[in-house]
From TrEMBL, chain B:
GO MF annotation list: oxidoreductase activity
Keyword field contains Iron-sulfur: yes
NCBIfam families with a match to the protein in the record: nuoF_fam, PRK13596.1
Protein name: NADH-quinone oxidoreductase subunit F
Functional description taken from the UniProt entry: NDH-1 shuttles electrons from NADH, via FMN and iron-sulfur (Fe-S) centers, to quinones in the respiratory chain.
Gene name, Swiss-Prot/TrEMBL: nuoF
Cofactors demanded by this protein: [4Fe-4S] cluster; FMN
Enzyme nomenclature, EC number: 7.1.1.-
Amino acid sequence: MSIVETEAGLTAEQRAAIEAMAGHYDDKRAACIEALRYVQGHYRWVSDRHLAEVAALLDMSRADLDGVATYYNLIFRRPVGEHVIFLCDSISCWVMGREAVNAHLCKRLGIQPGETSKDGAYTLLPIVCIGHCDHAPAMLLDDELHGDLDAVRIDTILGIQP
Amino acid sequence: METPLTNNIRPDREPLDIEGYEQAGGYRAVRKVLGGMAPADVIEAITQSKLRGRGGAGFPTGIKWSLVPKDLAASGPHYLVVNADEMEPGTFKDRLLLEGDPHQMIEAVIVAAYAIQAETAYIFLRGEYFLAERRLRRAVGEADARGYLGTNILGSGYDLAVHVHASGGRYICGEETALLTALEGRRAVPRAKPPFPQTSGLWGKPTVVNNVETLCNVPHIINNGADWFMGLGRGEDGGTKIYGASGRVRRPGSWELPMSTPLCEIIEEHAGGMRDGYELRGVLPGGLSTSFIMADDIEVKMDFASVEKVGSRLGTGAVIVLDQRTCPIGMLRNLEHFFAQESCGWCTPCRDGLPWVERLLAGIEAGEGEMDDLDILEQHVKFLGPGRTFCAHAPGAMAPLASGLKYFRAEFEQHIHEKRCPWNEAH
């Protein structure tokens, strides 16, 4: 499966959900990060079209919202794969050998950090400390935490038979 | 040894639901304060306990709360914000508390919000803490259904709404004013202080920002009193502390121990000492933005004043161990990469200085450094130090570098003279 380039607009239900988020705050724009992540939860990334729709819902300019979107690590303004691997690159994981794990992931997926595998299955990204230092090296696969990583564990997680 | 913060946390971290939490004595503090304590009395109880912030700065919690204006009619609404943006590398204590006992967090929020007369509270949660988010949202729902949140809580006339705000992920959001800017839906740029958030915080209204671990102490202090709390510590500071250890120790982990537990005890007894073939050279005692403590000072008590006496800071109490088989220059390069990447870019010394530091360290590590580079690094320590930048990010980045330049001078020179990393072949 290749990367989905969506041109469909947000559904009425999605728009209503974003308006409900805005109700939690005295100022609508405070919901913008939550709203972008919500959109991403449905479409994997935030397209220009969706960004414009969210901006209009929250009374923000597109440029203003894009400035916010591009500031935060967890918001994607470009398409990503079906699954996103966030491999920690902070100190405890580095001490415990994350570079070898990174090299193994790159080899298995045929990509460098920041890239998406040819089949569109995985995007590999570095991330700062994810608070799993007692099981370093650690990574997030979508919203699931995995620790004590080595080549064998990676292959098991990716479903590759040895 | 009492462990109030982690009493309810099971080894598999599956949290208690609201009934289990109540059966374990939960929500007693809420009943106590809403059943007849004035907000000022709650603040006084916390002030008496001398509870200090567990997020790293160690500011007295009761005093922080007492700086919020008392005249609600004049000041407008107040806000309580939980700093659950745990992102200090090497630190994994708040995740334990949030995942393992979410109702303790909610109870703490209710008591603290009542004390400062806030009717809205936000839990600003690290975006990557997906499990904690699910568990917190469930706990908020349960507490709401049980009448601990919402309007006229337990018939007291006090109203409180709690919202979980999952962040978009940036280290600087842990800085309390940057956190407030982020919560308002903007790029997380810190604000000048004063005014402090207690008078002008979220949307310009009086706001208290407290760390997760700090707040989790509050219900226990309300239930058991200041003397009990003071008695928990082994030194000047009261209470317990969740310490952690990571790196090449036998049993990396986190443990709730009496405040002032010696560093050597944390490493030897709780973390099981070093793994075979590894020796401890030094540690960063409280996350990345603290100075190295070398093996000679390993007996230091882990509390605010004692750690300062050996030239570092307690920080988050998350001990990161440097062993003899890890290149200290590589370690410094890794951590300055983190600081450079996570700079918000607002002020010049931080935005331009940190990437320069990273480049110099990477060059030295690769065997391409020159002796002059060490002088430039020393200059950065000065120009990015306290008082030179808009917030504490760059000074935090300079703490490990300054101590590294002092303690690892020989290793720096070895890299430069041999034009290679001596650890490269050793690995």
